[in-house]
């Protein structure tokens, strides 16, 4: 029985083994092909809570007979400014009573407003402003090598330790993108409004998601700390320099912006939508800009990003 079964299975062993070997090789190459590529990064900023507003003290009231509220009263001792006149121990009782009622009403309204406001930050005692966290991504044909050169230059010379410097980086990056519309292939945008205390976590989550798509950051300028990996060139399997002119190879640029107030980017469905989104995010002023990340891949010379990698790593992008 066993021999008969083995004789039936034996002819199938070679085809099955061959299929397993082919699948292993294909998947192995696929993993290599879909591996993240080199990336560049420019960024900086701060999510500091706003300084607490001016402190308010109870208004001073002049007590008849001399002194400010809480001061010395004729007849000996220190007393409460309102209680003494109310009970007739001094003049102006009605006037002081009205002031007392007004102050009490003001304090009551203030406490109710604080307790009922969702914008109030219990830690700092200050109102928490609205912050927009926006992401814009552009996929370009690999022929747009001039864009990579622009981004490299910006990274090497940018001041990423001040709001003014970050605003300049944002403007130069969006201008570089607007100069290459003939290479636009993919686009995508999204933006969310949140409170300041939650904005940093949201921004960091998006930044980590995008950075995790790189195998290494070969050029980085974050908070004026410039880091650059040793120059390398991607080689083809034959050992020759890989050519970037293949029309099925791409460059993907990602902009992450945290800005005070509302920043709503248009949904990207065509090149006109993409142009509006680039212009809108690039117009954020330095006094609104809290944090910025400019990420692009590939960064290293000769490194490439295939159409399959774009589809796998950036599934939300749309053809424009």
UniProtKB/TrEMBL annotation:
InterPro entries: DUF1517 (IPR010903), FLAP_modulator (IPR053023). The keyword Transmembrane applies. Pfam families: DUF1517. Keywords: Membrane, Transmembrane, Transmembrane helix. It comes from the Bacteria. The chain crosses the membrane at residues 82-108. PANTHER family: MYELIN-ASSOCIATED OLIGODENDROCYTE BASIC PROTEIN. This is DUF1517 domain-containing protein.
């Amino acid at each position: 029985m066993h021999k008969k079964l083995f004789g039936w299975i034996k002819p199938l062993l070679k085809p099955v083994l061959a299929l397993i070997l082919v699948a292993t090789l294909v998947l192995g190459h696929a993993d290599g092909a879909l591996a993240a590529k080199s990336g560049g990064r420019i960024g900086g900023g701060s999510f500091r809570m706003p300084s607490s507003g001016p402190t308010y003290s109870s208004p001073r009231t002049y007590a008849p007979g001399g002194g400010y509220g809480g001061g010395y009263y004729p007849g000996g001792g220190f007393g409460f400014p309102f209680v003494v006149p109310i009970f007739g121990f001094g003049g102006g009782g009605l006037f002081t009573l009205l002031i007392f009622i007004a102050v009490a009403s003001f304090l009551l309204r203030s406490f109710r407003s604080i307790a009922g406001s969702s914008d109030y930050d219990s830690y700092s005692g200050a109102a928490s402003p609205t912050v927009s966290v926006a992401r814009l991504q552009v996929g370009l044909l690999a022929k747009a090598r001039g864009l990579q050169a622009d981004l490299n230059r910006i990274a090497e010379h940018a001041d990423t330790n001040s709001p003014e410097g970050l605003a300049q980086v944002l403007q130069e990056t969006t201008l570089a993108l607007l100069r290459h519309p003939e290479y636009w292939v993919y686009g995508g945008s999204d933006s969310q409004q949140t409170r300041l205390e939650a904005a940093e976590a949201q921004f960091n989550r998006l930044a980590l998601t995008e950075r995790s798509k790189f195998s290494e950051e070969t050029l980085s300028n974050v908070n004026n700390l410039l880091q650059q990996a040793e120059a390398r060139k991607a080689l083809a399997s034959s050992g020759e320099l890989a050519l970037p002119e293949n029309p099925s190879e791409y460059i993907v640029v990602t902009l992450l912006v945290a800005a005070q107030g509302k920043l709503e980017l248009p949904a990207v469905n065509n090149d006109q939508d993409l142009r509006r989104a680039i212009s809108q995010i690039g117009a954020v002023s330095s006094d609104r800009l809290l944090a910025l990340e400019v990420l692009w891949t590939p960064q290293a010379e000769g490194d490439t990003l295939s159409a399959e990698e774009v589809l796998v790593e950036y599934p939300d992008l749309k053809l424009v």
